[in-house]
Structure to design on (840 residues):
């Protein structure tokens, strides 16, 4: 994390941007390297798609045609210089410019991630507060067990469970697609948001219980303030600080969580684009999508950290 | 939009119409190839069809396209592949093949226009064919055509460099041979728009759906449906759920929206959808690397032992729920010139062990490379085979790779065992033999100079009898050398919603005949 070293906010922002650029460059280099190490390349995929007997001669001819036989550093440098000029290259699979393809797929993913975040925050707040406010052992245990279950269930299993119940049995929502507007969004948002909300709830309730046990709140309780008042008025703002940082991490992960959801619900977003590019070893779309997702993760985490700094004085001195 | 009351009502309607259909046709359950009765086909409407993956550009000239069942609505061939491989008229009403097999004369159907109004004539067809002749080396007809002539508007003459009987059959394929309007291309010859003579034409296409509308000028009579909507649904579970919920009307098909046999169990005995199956047109083979694989595989006795170690009946029953059948020949009997009698290849572990002992090749370790995406049961099947081979003393290591990595390993011949699927009609048997059983093809599954000669003889045969005799020799040579281990005959599996009327499976997995289909709404 960036430490503030005497400079003003401009310097801090500049330092964070520089850090971001370095990180993005490092990630692009790593993903390029991983793709080089992977068996098979886009030429293999093209020939495979053409059908017939796949021979090395055919693959090599295709490799030459696509320029994949050029030295790796040259190809990487070429990609960088193009990217600096704002050209993200063309997809080998479709032959179309990557920038256009990404633009058409960004909407569904952003919609999914935002809706998932809303579900996550609502569920997180509810679970966290309810667990901290509840008396006895039963309700907290139930909530804890429920969240543990939600966090542990794989995304696709949760998706099919919800589809079986709410689409096939009750007929409330369509099983997939985007045709039915908000109704189409409900199940994917739940699949994304429920596990994230459960995780968020766990963090929040633990923190709330810690804060509730602090002397000043014990005193407040002794003075006759109700448990609920203590919880909402003093404990929640206090617990929010640490929870915000965790929330940033969890919500940032939603961006990658859409991968499974898009596949299952047939949404044509960045997740399915990334998977297709990876399977095809299609370097330009792969690189652009990975970098975009990285930037989003970095920005969301940065924002949540800044918010935490704003809310709590202490976070400014201790990074 | 999707309120519970609304869909409860829709559900009742669906049950009602399904019950009516059952009463009318007097049949239920899976196992048929058609759905509903033609008398009750309602006029117009939209058919919603699931598509497993988005389509690049619907260019029938490009090998990047794989949505054959969509292309089949837009583009048409000169000749159609009929049941049992009988060739039927398409855009050509009749045709003759000269006695030396070198000249093919096609008499074109008159009054055919592309959906943009351009007339389909011999000169137009010639220009279109010249876009791919010589360009597609792995396609026999592309390298065999010497010239195309259009002596008049109704006659197209194709001259071959050498006698190649599959030439006419290859003209039934989807790509690159089906005809595009001259307006499909810009002046520089680049493909810009899909325009064909087929029963439907493209209205719009995106990453999520392809919309086709009726071609009102279709030569074969007015197609019944107003619209065909192909909806992209990558997950097979999601497709099944959508069919059950009535959100799509048709799923399945090897190249469209594959449906696994175990998924059909979910549809059995319920009224909202019906499973349509057809016996096999493709075989799943276990191939041996006899050149750069484990040296034991060069010994025919070892390959024979593997053949006797496989419990094909158990695979067909447990992994394919009896929709597949044990395969004992390279091709299923429905393929032209394919062997009609099964071989006696029942499980015989003792015989397999004896053969291995006789060859002195017991205790071998073999590497099976696997692309799990090739077939839903691929992983389970490879584990079953692993267990069966272990019983006779062959240890198998399963190396699961993704498609690109698998293709790389297979093309570099870095494997001992791999699964291979025959292509199915209209490609088989010639294309499969040409590409995979010739020593001149570096990626061959099994090859020998003797078999090369026999394949040449079959492909050059100018009479049916000559070809049948030559093919019989090919099958005998492949079987005698234990070239591969046939595993199962893979079924064709589709499922259709209860509201669809008049739907029947196409002759091949590439076809999707929809002109007579209707939908009850």
């Amino acid at each position: 994390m960036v430490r503030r070293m005497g400079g003003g906010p401009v310097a801090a922002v500049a330092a964070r941007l520089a850090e971001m650029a370095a990180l993005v460059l490092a990630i692009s280099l790593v993903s390029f390297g991983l793709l080089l190490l992977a068996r098979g390349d886009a030429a293999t995929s093209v020939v495979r798609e053409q059908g017939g007997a796949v021979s090395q001669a055919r693959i090599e001819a295709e490799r030459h045609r696509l320029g994949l036989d050029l030295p790796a550093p040259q190809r990487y440098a070429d990609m960088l210089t193009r990217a600096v000029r704002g050209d993200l290259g063309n997809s080998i699979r479709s032959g179309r410019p990557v920038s256009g393809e990404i633009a058409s797929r960004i909407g569904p993913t952003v919609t999914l991630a935002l809706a998932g975040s809303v579900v996550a925050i609502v569920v997180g707040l509810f679970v966290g507060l309810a667990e901290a406010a509840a008396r006895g052992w039963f309700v907290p245990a139930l909530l804890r067990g429920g969240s543990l279950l939600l966090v542990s269930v794989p995304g696709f299993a949760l998706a099919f469970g919800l589809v079986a119940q709410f689409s096939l049995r009750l007929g409330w929502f369509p099983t997939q697609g985007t045709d039915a507007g908000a109704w189409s969004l409900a199940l994917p948002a739940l699949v994304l948001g429920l596990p994230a909300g459960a995780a968020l709830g766990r963090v929040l309730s633990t923190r709330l219980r810690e804060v509730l046990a602090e002397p000043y709140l014990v005193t407040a309780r002794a003075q006759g303030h109700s448990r609920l008042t203590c919880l909402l008025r003093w404990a929640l703002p206090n617990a929010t600080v640490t929870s915000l940082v965790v929330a940033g991490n969890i919500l940032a992960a939603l961006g990658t969580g859409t991968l499974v959801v898009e596949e299952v619900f047939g949404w044509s977003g960045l997740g399915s684009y990334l998977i297709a590019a990876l399977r095809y070893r299609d370097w330009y779309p792969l690189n652009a999508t990975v970098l975009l997702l990285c930037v989003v993760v970095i920005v969301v985490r940065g924002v949540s950290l800044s918010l935490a700094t704003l809310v709590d004085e202490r976070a400014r001195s201790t990074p | 939009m999707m309120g519970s009351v609304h869909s409860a009502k829709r559900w009742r309607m669906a049950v009602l119409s399904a019950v009516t259909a059952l009463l009318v046709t007097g049949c239920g359950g899976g196992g048929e190839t058609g759905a509903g009765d033609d008398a009750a086909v309602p006029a117009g409407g939209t058919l919603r069809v699931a598509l497993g993956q988005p389509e690049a550009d619907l260019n029938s000239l490009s090998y990047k396209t794989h949505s054959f069942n969509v292309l089949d609505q837009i583009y048409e061939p000169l000749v159609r592949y009929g049941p049992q491989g009988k060739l039927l008229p398409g855009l050509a009403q009749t045709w003759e093949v000269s006695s030396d097999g070198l000249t093919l004369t096609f008499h074109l159907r008159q009054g055919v226009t592309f959906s943009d109004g351009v007339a389909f004539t011999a000169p137009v067809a010639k220009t279109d064919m010249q876009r791919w002749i010589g360009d597609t080396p792995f396609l026999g007809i592309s390298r065999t055509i010497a010239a195309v002539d259009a002596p008049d508007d109704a006659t197209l003459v194709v001259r071959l460099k050498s006698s190649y009987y599959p030439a006419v059959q290859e003209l039934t394929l989807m790509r690159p041979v089906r005809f595009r309007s001259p307006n499909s291309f810009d002046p520089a010859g680049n493909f810009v728009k899909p325009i064909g003579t087929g029963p439907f034409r493209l209205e719009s296409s995106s990453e999520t759906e392809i919309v086709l509308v009726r071609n009102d000028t279709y030569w074969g009579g007015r197609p019944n449906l107003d619209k065909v909507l192909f909806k992209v649904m990558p997950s097979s579970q999601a497709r099944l759920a959508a069919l059950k919920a009535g959100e799509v009307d048709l799923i399945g098909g090897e190249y469209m929206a594959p449906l696994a046999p175990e998924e059909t169990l979910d549809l059995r005995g319920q009224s909202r959808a019906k499973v349509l199956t057809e016996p096999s047109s493709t075989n799943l083979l276990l191939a041996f690397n006899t050149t750069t694989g484990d040296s034991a595989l060069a010994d025919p006795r070892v390959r024979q032992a593997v053949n006797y170690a496989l419990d094909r009946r158990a695979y067909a029953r447990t992994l394919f729920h009896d929709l597949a059948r044990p395969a004992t020949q390279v091709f299923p009997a429905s393929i032209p010139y394919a062997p009609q009698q099964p071989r006696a290849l029942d499980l015989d572990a003792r015989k397999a062990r004896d053969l291995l002992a006789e060859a002195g090749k017991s205790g071998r370790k073999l590497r099976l490379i696997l692309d799990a995406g090739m077939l839903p049961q691929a992983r389970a099947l490879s584990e079953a085979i692993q267990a069966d081979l272990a019983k006779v003393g062959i240890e198998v290591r399963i190396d699961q790779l993704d498609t690109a990595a698998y293709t790389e390993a297979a093309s570099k011949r870095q494997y001992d065992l791999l699964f291979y699927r025959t292509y199915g009609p209209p490609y088989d048997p010639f294309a499969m033999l040409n590409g995979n059983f010739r020593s001149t093809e570096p990626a061959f599954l099994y090859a020998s100079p003797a078999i090369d000669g026999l394949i040449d003889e079959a492909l050059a045969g100018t009479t049916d009898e000559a070809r049948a005799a030559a093919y019989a020799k090919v099958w005998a040579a492949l079987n005698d050398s234990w070239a591969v281990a046939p595993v199962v005959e893979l079924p064709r599996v589709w499922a259709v919603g209860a509201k669809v009327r008049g739907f029947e499976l196409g002759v091949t997995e590439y076809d999707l005949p929809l002109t007579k289909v209707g939908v009850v709404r």
Chain B touches chain A through 51 residues (CB under 8 Å). Residues 28 and 316 of chain B are 23 Å apart (CA to CA).
